[in-house]
Specification:
10 helices, 5-stranded mixed beta sheet, 368 residues, 20% strand, 4-stranded antiparallel beta sheet
């Protein structure tokens, strides 16, 4: 894993999600990509990344300080957008087709009733028709149409159909794992993107820091909605990111769906439905003889070599390191534990709490 590769991807994503979808002022671009815009090492990495993109002819930088995407890069974004448009158009055409079939059936039924009524009139030797009888017949047709519409709506919300096996979802799963989400995502934006089918949502955040991991679990209305999300929405662009969707059935004895519609460990999310949560805490009281540290708010590009070099800047030699991963998805949590050979080395390492590592201020605390 390299920080430069991640930075290059972030620059491309930022340009694609700009106002015009292709260009941005250099300083504005740097601010949107770097978490610490004032850090010299981060600025240097950013400058090198832009130069590399220019060399690869993926972007161009003009004399006004404007960074512009190459046509080949814009085409990739346009393809994703076109895929999303086709998905919406296909859904609209399918709905119109269903409505047309329903109308045709109703027209056929009405024509059949008219024919029967006509034959009845001939059989009764042109007996006069009462206006009240005619109004009653019209009322019966209208009631029949309304009942059919209500029945279709009820069927969609019927609890007995919620976990019913269907095409592309033979197990009838209604819980989904959503990954690669933008850090500025909100519950409303996400629900609209999934065609309004979310009933419960759980943002996945770090228990220690409350930091959002860019993923969530969502409960949807029924198995058909889950299958549609998997088949039609998985991989499409959401705020410049290709969203990842997988079936994620709850484990035995797991309290799911949650009592609240939206739950999370992030403060901002609890306040207004936004996923993010952030902050560096002060360190707790050091346990006697402690030689182990918790490390958090780590870049997803971190590896053993990078963390070893980081602590060696204060001559703190690492004995062992352990990274933590999500059991459900296997994604890196952005946290881990580091063992040192003695408590003195551990104390030296702890002095780096809040220092910048791969563009992020590291969170350090004592661990037993």
């Amino acid at each position: 894993m390299t920080s430069s590769t991640a930075l290059v991807s972030s620059i491309i994503d930022a340009l694609r999600s700009s106002d015009n979808g292709k260009s941005m002022d250099l300083k504005k671009l740097r601010s949107s990509v770097l978490t610490d815009d004032g850090d010299k090492s981060s600025k240097k990495l950013f400058k090198e990344a832009v130069k590399q993109l220019e060399k690869d002819e993926r972007v161009s930088l003009n004399s006004d300080g404007e960074v512009k995407l190459a046509k080949s890069e814009r085409k990739s974004a346009d393809d994703d957008e076109e895929k999303t448009k086709k998905h919406k158009k296909s859904k609209k055409e399918k709905k119109q087709k269903q409505e047309k079939k329903s109308k045709k059936r109703k027209d056929t039924a009405a024509a059949s009733d008219d024919e029967k009524h006509s034959k009845k009139q001939i059989k009764t030797d042109d007996a006069p028709v009462d206006d009240d009888d005619e109004e009653e017949a019209d009322g019966e047709v209208e009631n029949s149409m309304e009942n059919n519409e209500e029945e279709a709506e009820t069927q969609n919300d019927d609890p007995t159909n919620k976990n019913k096996p269907c095409k592309n979802n033979p197990q009838g799963i209604t819980r989904l794992f959503l990954g690669n989400l933008p850090f500025a995502i909100t519950e409303t934006t996400l629900n609209d993107f999934l065609n309004g089918c979310i009933t419960h949502l759980k943002w996945i955040t770090d228990k220690e820091t409350g930091k959002f991991y860019g993923s969530a679990f969502a409960e949807v209305r029924n198995s058909k909605d889950a299958a549609q999300c998997m088949q039609e929405i998985n991989g499409t662009q959401l705020m410049g990111r290709p969203i990842k969707i997988n079936y994620a059935p709850p484990r035995d004895l797991e309290d799911w769906p949650p009592k609240s519609r939206v739950i999370t460990g992030g403060k901002l999310a609890n306040a207004g439905g936004q996923a993010g949560g952030k902050g560096i805490k002060a360190m707790s009281v050091k346990p006697e003889g402690c030689s182990k540290l918790f490390i958090g708010n780590l870049s997803y590009e971190i590896d053993d070599e990078a963390i070893t070099k980081f602590f060696m800047t204060v001559e703190a030699e690492i004995k062992a390191v352990r990274w933590l991963y999500h059991q459900d998805s296997g994604d890196f949590k952005g946290v881990g534990y580091v063992d040192f050979w003695n408590t003195e080395a551990c104390e030296k390492a702890a002095t780096l709490n809040g220092k910048n590592l791969l563009g992020r201020p590291i969170r350090i605390d004592w661990a037993e």
